[in-house]
């Protein structure tokens, strides 16, 4: 089962005293990269938080934001930064004078600058809050993973459809190659006759020439390996393990076989289909980058 590295999750928990909210986002990344923002008095639990994430995520760039506030907003005091308010008032007065505005500066205008208000939380650090934060984080991670799994299912459908198209092109390449063999062998015989006309022909050179030319005619080995890679890719798609790195490696191997077929095939029809194969492989590669 494929799992995408893109997802979002939200979780909440609390009691009569506090309310905890957790939001987590993930995007693709080669390794597990975690960024955490906790309330000041929960920073002692950062390692615990990282361990929660490691248990449920193997790869991706994870951003977790946890906020904690009093369940009753009446429990929060608000501090007014009068120095900042005076600064904003002066700025507005200067703008009014410079722009020759007629409107009066009012309290309503100053209230638009939220920076002048600072909430003073009456929540003190307390070990009893961590279980609620842990519950909220786990809920957010579970929701994110459900989204990642659903996206992974959609990716799997797309990838398997593209593999069918790739195999179709490779099968066409095999058929074209099979039909052109008589012509190529005739060309090989002509080449051998030319070499034999040289009185100083070297037997070792002749044998080497034949071996090189014959090898360039046969792309069976590359096609067989390509089909083997495709089958293994399908097996990985159905695997319960995290297979993003393995799929990426297989894509590289398929691309290598396509390049070899293209370099060996002295045929325009085959070359065109190799281009189509590589186009599909590139689309698959882009999708695979987002798989855990």
Description:
The protein has 292 residues and is of the alpha+beta class. It folds into 3 domains: 7-74 and 122-148, GHMP Kinase, N-terminal domain (Ribosomal Protein S5, domain 2, 2-Layer Sandwich); 77-120, no CATH class; 150-288, no CATH class. It is 60% helix and 15% strand. It contains 8 helices and 6 strands, in the order βββαββααβααααα. The protein has helices at residues 46-56, 82-98, 107-111, 130-196, 203-217, 220-237, 244-264, 268-288; strands at residues 7-14, 18-27, 32-37, 60-70, 77-80, 117-120. The strands form 2 sheets. The chain has a 4-stranded mixed β-sheet. It has a two-stranded antiparallel ribbon with strand order 5-6. α4 (130-196) packs antiparallel against α6 (220-237), α4 (130-196) packs antiparallel against α8 (268-288) and α7 runs antiparallel to α8. The longest helix is centred in the middle third of the chain and has 67 residues, at 130-196. The chain is elongated. It starts with 6 loop residues before the first strand and ends with a helix. The relative contact order is 0.14. The mean pLDDT is 84.
What's the arrangement of secondary structure elements?
Elements: E1 7-14, E2 18-27, E3 32-37, H1 46-56, E4 60-70, E5 77-80, H2 82-98, H3 107-111, E6 117-120, H4 130-196, H5 203-217, H6 220-237, H7 244-264, H8 268-288
Parallel strand pairs: 3-4
Antiparallel strand pairs: 1-2, 2-4, 5-6
Helix pairs in contact: 1-4, 4-5, 4-6, 4-8, 6-7, 7-8
């Amino acid at each position: 089962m494929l799992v995408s590295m893109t997802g979002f999750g939200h979780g909440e928990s609390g009691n009569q005293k506090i309310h905890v909210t957790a939001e987590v986002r993930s995007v693709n990344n080669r390794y597990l990269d975690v960024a955490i923002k906790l309330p000041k008095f929960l920073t002692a639990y950062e390692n615990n938080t990282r361990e929660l994430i490691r248990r449920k995520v193997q790869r991706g760039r994870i951003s977790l934001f946890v906020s904690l506030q009093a369940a009753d907003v009446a429990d929060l005091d608000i501090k007014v930064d009068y120095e900042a308010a005076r600064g904003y008032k002066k700025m507005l007065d200067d703008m009014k004078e410079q722009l020759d505005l007629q409107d009066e500066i009012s309290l309503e205008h100053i209230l638009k600058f939220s920076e002048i208000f600072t909430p003073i939380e009456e929540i003190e650090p307390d070990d009893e809050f961590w279980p609620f934060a842990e519950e909220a984080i786990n809920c957010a991670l579970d929701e994110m993973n459900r989204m990642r799994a659903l996206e992974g299912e959609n990716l799997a459908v797309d990838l398997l459809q593209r593999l069918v198209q790739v195999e179709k092109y490779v099968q066409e390449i095999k058929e074209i190659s099979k039909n052109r063999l008589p012509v190529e062998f005739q060309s090989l015989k002509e080449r051998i006759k030319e070499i034999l006309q040289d009185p100083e022909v070297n037997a070792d050179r002749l044998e080497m020439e034949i071996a090189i030319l014959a090898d360039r005619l046969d792309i069976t080995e590359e096609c067989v390996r390509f089909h083997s890679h495709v089958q293994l890719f399908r097996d990985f798609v159905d695997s319960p393990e995290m297979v993003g790195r393995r799929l990426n490696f297989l894509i590289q191997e398929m691309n290598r076989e396509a390049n070899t077929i293209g370099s060996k095939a002295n045929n325009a029809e085959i070359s065109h289909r190799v281009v189509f194969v590589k186009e599909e492989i590139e689309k698959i590669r882009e999708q695979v980058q987002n798989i855990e």
